[in-house]
Amino acid sequence: MSTTAVTPLSTADAETLLTAARRAAESAGVTVSVTVLDAGGHLLAFRRDDRAVLISGETSTRKAYTALQLNAPTADLVDLVKPDGPFHSLPTALDRPLLFIAGGLPVHRDGRLIGAIGVGGGAPEQDHGFAATAIEELSR
To answer: Under 8 Å CB-to-CB from 70, ≥6 apart: which residues?
Structure first.
């Protein structure tokens, strides 16, 4: 079995993600917070726009953490935690900052999970779009 090392998410990568997400939000006229975590869940980059709602800093971080831990876009998880969903008790079962609102995306390189980005401050669908735009920019 061959194992190939995957380059981890760097601070330069994190800045690329942060800048691209903020640029996408700015062009949509939305003020946001952006959080980038590495594969271990450690903060690599964070930025809250001056006029973004204060809670967006917390929501962006929790969205990134959730996307990282479950290796899935938070938008895909929303229905799973509804009262009749299979993960209904997950948000309260763990002493962890999970948040099942669109705007968090895992970041992959060569098919391997290397980190996550979370965006908060806009409508959930907007936040998801800003994060997706950032990942597209990183993959260029």
So the answer is: 77
- Which tokens in the block code for residue 86? 């299979």
Cα-based distances in Å from 138 to 22, 55, 89, 95, 132 = 14, 26, 34, 32, 10
pLDDT digits (tens, 9 = 90+) for 87-124: 877 767 666 778 999 999 999 999 999 999 999 999 99
Q: How far is 49 from 33, CA to CA, in rounded Å?
A: 6
pTM: 0.93
How many CA atoms, within 13 angstroms, populate the side-chain half-sphere of residue 131? 35
With both helix axes pointing from N to C terminus, report the angle between 124-138 and 11-27 in degrees, rounded to the nearest 10. Answer: 130
